[in-house]
Specification:
Layout: H1 10-17, E1 19-22, H2 28-37, H3 39-44, E2 57-60, H4 63-66, H5 71-74, H6 77-87, E3 94-104, E4 130-136, E5 148-149, E6 168-169, E7 177-181, E8 186-187, E9 197-206, H7 215-218, H8 221-224, H9 229-234, H10 272-286
């Protein structure tokens, strides 16, 4: 694994390799506290079923309410800025795609190499659909299953080499952030150690995509109304212009109010260019143009 990178250098590294490790973004003791707060959930969660998720692996979501301290991961300024720099050229706003805690047990096999953006059955071009962040809760080593990446595999010109010899194990520590693009070929490594490997995945996607984790069901209005407005918008209580993701023709943030009427007027939510074109069209019909 090559050396650490700062948030400022991360965009260039993502563009080149499709992944990078940003060191020391949060104090290790803050991560340790999150780890401890999830002990019960890890113990209570059964092993996954199926070859992809891994039968020696435990996974669970809904982290913003299971462990409210994880909001510091989801809303980390440097990570949000990085995700927006990658995704905003192709959407009006980004959205939270997933929060998931992962525990890989000794004896777990290596995960099938995959690209996360294959969730969406669309033709993939030059732009990215997704930015993922793994926050290690324990040290990631080659022995305990550190995530493996195929450098450059996010590029359309990639030669398709998915051999083990072409992979790089992303070793990292609690407090670091391991970032990769949705188009980067990757997979968890085999855990041939005697230790658990724990981490938290926070994933962001283009705001017009259906997310991996259905945020509106995971965080219904009675829950999301207690979030800060920026977090509520990220989990889906905001429209993506033009008019996508509305409720009764309104921004879904109106559901977070204590009292809301049963009948409301639909309200346009348009990009400035659309609003200008529409205004010209209406003015011409009215004779104002």
């Amino acid at each position: 694994m090559t050396g650490p990178f700062s948030p400022d250098s991360a965009p260039a590294r993502l563009d080149r390799d499709g992944f990078c490790v940003i060191r020391n973004l949060l104090p290790a003791n803050q991560i340790d506290a999150m780890d401890s707060s999830l002990d019960y959930d890890f113990a209570a969660t059964p092993y996954c079923v199926g070859d992809f998720f891994g039968e020696r692996t435990k996974r669970f979501g809904r982290l913003l309410t299971r462990a409210p301290a994880t909001r510091a991961l989801v809303m980390h300024d440097a990570i949000l800025a990085l995700a927006q720099s990658v995704l905003l050229p192709n959407c009006d706003r980004i959205a939270l795609n997933l929060t998931q805690a992962v525990e890989i047990h000794p004896g777990a096999l290596a995960q099938y190499p995959h690209r996360d953006h294959d969730l969406w059955p669309a033709i993939k071009g030059g732009h990215q659909f997704q930015v993922n962040v793994m926050w290690p809760l324990s040290p990631f080593t080659a022995e305990n299953g550190a995530t493996r990446f195929w450098p450059g595999s996010h590029r359309l010109t990639y030669d398709g080499d998915a051999s083990e010899s072409a992979a790089v194990a992303a070793t990292c520590e609690p407090g670091d952030a391991l970032v990769w693009l949705g188009g980067t070929l990757h997979g968890a490594g085999a855990n041939v150690s005697d230790d658990l490997r724990r981490g938290i995945i926070v994933s962001y996607c283009l705001g017009w995509l259906k997310p991996f984790e259905l945020q509106w069901l995971v965080y219904p209005p009675e829950v999301a109304r207690h979030f800060d407005p920026d977090l509520a918008a990220l989990v889906g209580y905001a429209q993506h212009r033009p008019n996508l993701g509305n409720v009764e023709g309104r921004c879904p943030s109106y559901l977070l109010a204590g009292d809301r009427p049963d009948h409301v007027a639909a309200v346009d939510a348009l990009r400035p260019d659309q609003a200008d074109a529409l205004r010209t069209y209406v003015d011409e019909q009215r004779g104002d143009g």
